Amino acid sequence: MNTTRTGGCLCGQVRYTLNAEPVISRICWCRDCQHLSSNGTVNVIFPSEAIEITGTPASYTSTAESGNQVSRRFCPRCGSHLFADSTGRPGLTVVRVGTLDDPSSVKPAANIWSASAPAWACLDETLDRVDRQPGPIKPR
């Protein structure tokens, strides 16, 4: 089953279409994600080639705690964080669930980097829990 999903930034300058089913969706509690959102980020991973982008996101690359190089892409006008690509996940792109037009179209399967979550974090006990970096994932 192939469902098309759409999304974009707050101001609408950057829009995207996803033409594949998600590989996995997770809530990340690493410190980098906490800096981005002041909380955990809800992410869904898609094959990179399944993402069509209109508009030109800006990007910022840094070394994550995992040691991977992560390039984060965001709207240059409103700053909405949209995507992330990691050297640890070639061929896969993280999409921030909150930027989907229908964020309820995906459900997270796990909390990752849960050891970094603040003491007040509400971690859904029905989701898998990984203390740090999860094992590798492969495109379907």
Automatic annotation (TrEMBL):
Keyword Transport among record annotations = no
Note the Pfam families from the entry.
GFA
**Signal peptide feature range:** none
Q: Where does the record place the CENP-V/GFA domain?
A: 5-121
Q: Keywords, A to Z?
A: Lyase, Metal-binding, Zinc
Matching Gene3D superfamilies? glutathione-dependent formaldehyde- activating enzyme (gfa) (3.90.1590.10)
UniProt similarity note: Belongs to the Gfa family.
Q: What is this protein called?
A: GFA family protein
